[in-house]
Every structure is written in C-alpha cells, then in structure tokens.
C-alpha cells in the first residue's frame, strides 16, 4: 500500500472509531439512568410603576405588541443582572433592580421552554424620565398604561403575567406562575415568615447602578 492510500485509510479508520466511541458513550449514559433535562430560554423583565399605579410599557419596532423593559439572559449572566442591562440598553438609564416579583414557566410554541423573571424596578424620577433615550432603534416609544387597559396594548399571556405580578407586589410575596396563571403556594412554616422575608420597602428608581 502506497503512502497516500495508507493515509486515506488511516483517516477513515480514526473517524469511524471516533463516531463509534461517541455512540458508546451515549448508550452508556442512557443505560446508567441519565435523562434529558430541560434547557429553557430565560428572560428577565422590569416592572416600573408611576405614582398612579400605571405600568411602563415599551413599543418595540420588531414586535406587534407592547412589552415591559427586558430581554433574554446571556450565558453566565444572572436574571437580575440581565434585567439591569436590558433597561440600560433599551432606555439609556441605569437603575437599581429590586426584589423578585414573579417567575413564569411559559413554554412558547415557536421558541420552546421559557422561564421569565420579573423584578421590581420601583419608580422613575422626573429626571430619569427626561434622560430616556432609545439608543439602538429597537424601541419606538414608551407609555404608562393603566392595568385595566392592557388589552389595548399587548397580548393575553403578558397581560396575565403582569396582573399576577402586580398582585405579588401588593401582597409582598413573590408569585410562581405557569403561563401567567398563579399556582398554589405552600403556607409559611413559621408564623410571620411571609412578612419577615419581604423587603422593607420598594426602592425609588435611582442611578446608583
């Protein structure tokens, strides 16, 4: 066998062995009891309210409906950090993101499994509102909208999520949701735990980063 033929044969043999070894590892993993795990997309959003209880909504140029500030979490990033980053990218202001208000397990038919976090972002001062700028062309405008008028601005699953999140804010108890619907939660094991576990007060939006 000449050298070129030998090299070609060796390449085929090594490739075949590597594929076989990979399959063996897969079969071994399955045989030892491992199961597929969910790898959902994760997003984080911010709930801003004004002094009239209206919700800050944005009109993205790439969506057919209004949404709250927020977006997908990047690799190695926490949901809270992603929320703060998205606020800056979409509104051009830096705020301190407050406590978690809701977590929603909401698979999407086109996007697969999704988990959505909403954090309390407090109120924006008049100075901060004046500083809002849409830097990347993804946001066309913003508006403060009464909860009872959400149907005029956005989609049903987001309406359910936002209304449940506002209830969680009022109750001072984070809400677990599935497709925007609140799910039963276990009672506190220690009397008064619900009150003790909450934050002292909502933060007024600031620029402390």
Strand order of the main beta sheet, please? Answer: 3-1-5-4-7-8
Give the structural class: alpha/beta
How many strand elements? 8
| CATH fold annotation of the domain at 41-183 | Nucleoside Triphosphate Pyrophosphohydrolase
* Helix count from the secondary structure assignment: 5
CATH superfamily of the domain at 41-183: Nucleoside Triphosphate Pyrophosphohydrolase
Secondary-structure element sequence? Answer: HEEEHEEHEHEEH
CATH architecture title of the domain at 41-183: Alpha-Beta Complex
Overall average pLDDT: 81
Largest sheet: 6 strands, mixed
Shape: globular
Distance between the termini: 70 Å
Contiguous uncertain segments of 5+ residues:
3-32, 193-209
Strand content: 15-25%
Oligomeric description of these chains: single chain
CATH class of the domain at 41-183: Alpha Beta
Gyration radius (Cα, Å) is 24 Å
Helical residue percent? Answer: 25-40%
Task: State the gist of this model.
The chain is α/β, with parallel strands linked by helices and 209 residues long. The protein has helices at residues 3-31, 79-91, 126-131, 156-171, 193-196, and strands at 41-47, 55-60, 70-72, 100-105, 114-120, 139-145, 175-178, 181-182.
């Amino acid at each position: 066998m000449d050298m070129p033929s030998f090299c070609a044969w060796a390449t085929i043999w090594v490739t075949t062995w590597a594929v076989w070894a990979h399959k063996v590892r897969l079969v071994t993993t399955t045989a030892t009891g491992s199961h597929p795990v969910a790898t959902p997309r994760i997003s984080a959003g911010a709930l801003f309210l004004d002094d009239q209880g209206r919700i800050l909504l944005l009109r993205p140029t790439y969506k057919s409906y209004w949404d709250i500030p927020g977006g997908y979490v990047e690799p190695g990033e926490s949901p809270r950090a992603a929320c703060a980053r998205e606020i800056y990218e979409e509104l051009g202001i830096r705020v301190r993101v407050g406590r978690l208000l809701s977590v929603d397990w909401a698979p999407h038919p086109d996007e697969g499994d999704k988990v959505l976090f909403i954090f309390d972002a407090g109120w924006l001062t008049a100075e901060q509102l004046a500083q809002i700028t849409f830097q990347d062309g993804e946001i066309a405008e913003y508006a403060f909208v009464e909860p009872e008028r959400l149907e005029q601005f956005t989609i049903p699953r987001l309406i359910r999520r936002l209304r449940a999140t506002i209830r969680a804010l009022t109750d001072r108890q984070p809400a677990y949701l599935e497709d925007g619907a609140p799910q039963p939660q276990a009672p506190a094991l220690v009397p008064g735990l619900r009150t003790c576990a909450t934050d002292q007060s909502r933060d007024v939006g600031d620029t402390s980063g």
